[in-house]
Amino acid sequence: MAENRQGYSPGVEMRDLDFERISRLVYDLAGINLHDGKKELVKSRLGKRLRHGNFGSFSDYYRYVTTQAGADELIAMIDSLSTNLTYFFREEKHYKKLEEVVREMAKEQSQRTTTLRLRVWSAGCSTGEEPYTLALVLNEALTGRAGNITILATDISTRALKKAVTGIYEKERVNTISPPLLRKYFQLGQGRWQGHYRVKKNIREMISFKRFNLKETLDADYCFDFIFCRNVMIYFDKRTQEEVVNRFYDRLHEGGYLFIGHSESLTGLSHRFTYVQPSIYRK
């Protein structure tokens, strides 16, 4: 990858200028706001990239990722600095609200002859626990009714998406799923996959995974009934939050819902959503 570099030493220093340049680059590309308190985190995570590429300094590394030859490493850098903490049924109240709304939609739809079509966007899907939870919750909500469910799951991290696509999780990662749902929607691994569970094919087929940067605009062909973007915007500054939230508004059907993290709020932002309850908004 990087030729004629000095070997990386764990003791290599990150100068303030290095941190400022890298922070600005990450902000411009991904909207992630790396304030001064994140310097040690950035140094630690990118230190592994320096060692991997045999870079002698952070300035050396910065110069490389800002060249055409460093395009793949630039993606790896963003991967390293994005946070992918998640689990099945995280912030469970959101799924209860989703189920309630969908059951009501299905009841109204039963008066007609058409199939209920549901389009959902998991924006910042990480390693897949959120979109798979959405799929099984929606499947349960529509039990006995004609439904067509499509979920778009996006993330900026190629590393997280690679894990998500497999639908395979260690036993301890599925302990927030009730035994009946685990039996119904997951297969227990055998042989070398002992101690792992895989999401069943019918659920996996509801989801399309795609690398996407929330600073970009999603194609106008996409329009959703529900958008989940939870615990992502806390890494953005106010201006980027406003831009992202208003793009979400444009990608929702009239009456559609936006779910954000319980630690997040649209208070203080300029937006067009109607407040429903904490962390839930409607178009």
Tell me what you see in this structure.
It is a single chain. The N terminus is likely disordered. This protein has 10 helices and 10 strands. It has 283 residues and is α/β, with parallel strands linked by helices. The protein has 2 domains: 66 residues, Orthogonal Bundle (Chemotaxis Receptor Methyltransferase Cher, domain 1), CATH 1.10.155.10; 191 residues, Vaccinia Virus protein VP39 (Rossmann fold), CATH 3.40.50.150. A 7-stranded mixed β-sheet has the order 6-2-1-7-8-10-9. Strands 3-5-4 form a 3-stranded antiparallel β-sheet. Helices cover 40% and strands 19% of the residues. Helix 2 packs antiparallel against helix 4 and helix 5 runs parallel beside helix 6.
What is the level 1 CATH name of the largest domain? Alpha Beta
Estimate what percentage of residues fall within beta strands: 15-25%
**Rg measurement, Å:** 21 Å
CATH homolog superfamily of the largest domain: Vaccinia Virus protein VP39
CATH T-level fold name of the largest domain:
Rossmann fold
Q: What's the average pLDDT?
A: 92
Number of domains: 2
Structural class: alpha/beta
Which runs of at least 5 residues are low in confidence (pLDDT < 50)? 1-9
Helix content range: 25-40%
Overall morphology: globular
